[in-house]
Write a structure and sequence with these properties.
Structural class: alpha/beta
Strand order of the largest sheet: 6-7-8-3-9-10
Radius of gyration: 19 Å
Bound molecules: adenosine-5'-triphosphate
Distance between the termini: 24 Å
Shape: globular
Strand content: 15-25%
Oligomer: single chain
Length: 265
């Protein structure tokens, strides 16, 4: 299987601070789901933002390569990066709900996000929006499209956000703790939907999460970050059943047991 993304010895720093991401290497194959787990401040968000070239001000990749389909993203100019963003690589942020404009109905925002990447008549746009919302199991897409964000529940907004990100059929989806703002039942549902995205859209997914339980459920590979270092990276079963690092063991031990079992084999 070809790798879609290779991160090679990547170091990222914010001005005047010690490295937020320290010499990290990892690879993701096509259609693979990889979770990056680790406590707050360990560098997870910084790492996936670098993949899209959207580090906050002061943040800089000081060393290494980020190869997307063999091309070093760090050497691309802003125009080429913009072409990739949203079409080949999409990102879902921590709180998608908050990124929706509160004073515009969903339809108008959704259409705008489609028209950034391709021309399409209004009616066709709406058809595509409805199709995508239905795929995310929003049962009344007409109503969702004519709603303002505040009229939708957290889970619904999250689904709208994921549907919007998937409309351009990106090959790589970066999801920054997309479930954190939601209650546990909705979290499980959204994670299940994301798992289906891989089958439907053949997309690889990198999921950033605090939750080792979520990671073990959804992932092919798991990476564990601790203070900027990727202390563990490997196949899901290897990480869960044969963790190498003490920190990984402590995260695994904190996952609650269900019916006497912590992880299904
Ligand atoms: N905009 C910024 N300016 C300066 N330093 C930052 C900035 N964003 C993050 N950092 C620093 O970089 C380090 C890594 O932060 P990052 O947000 O990547 O961690 P994280 O693992 O994603 O945390 P969380 O799970 O809370 O989102 C932290 O020490 C943080 O203080």
């Amino acid at each position: 299987m070809m790798d879609i993304l290779n991160i090679e010895n990547c170091t990222i720093s914010y001005q005047g601070q010690k490295a937020a991401v320290d010499d990290v290497s990892l690879s993701i194959g096509e259609k693979e789901i990889v979770s990056i787990v680790g406590e707050s401040g360990s560098g997870k968000t910084t790492l996936i933002r670098a993949i899209l070239g959207i580090l906050p001000p002061g943040g800089k990749v000081t060393d290494g390569k980020i190869l997307f389909q063999g091309k070093n993203i760090l050497e691309l100019d802003e125009r080429s990066l913009q072409k990739i963003r949203g079409t080949e690589i999409a990102m879902i942020f921590q709180d998608v709900g908050a990124s929706l404009d509160p004073i515009r109905i969903v339809d108008s925002q959704y259409r705008e996000s489609i028209l950034v990447h391709r021309k399409m008549p209004k009616e066709e746009c709406r058809g595509l929006e409805k199709k995508m919302l239905t795929k995310m199991h929003l049962t009344d897409p007409e109503r969702v499209l004519s709603s303002y964000p505040f009229e939708l529940s957290g889970g619904m907004k999250q689904r709208v956000g994921i549907a919007m990100s998937m409309t351009a059929r990106p090959k790589l989806l970066l999801a920054d703790e997309p479930t954190s703002a939601l209650d546990v039942t909705i979290q499980a549902e959204v994670v299940r939907e994301m798992k289906k995205l891989r089958e439907q859209y053949q997309a690889a997914i990198i999921l950033v999460t605090h939750n080792m339980g979520v990671a073990s459920y959804i992932s092919d590979k798991i990476g564990v970050m601790c203070q900027g270092k990727l202390v563990e990276f490997g196949k899901r079963d290897d990480v869960i059943f044969h963790p190498k690092h003490e920190y990984t063991r402590s995260l695994l031990a904190a996952v609650p047991r269900l019916e006497g079992k912590r992880f299904a084999k």
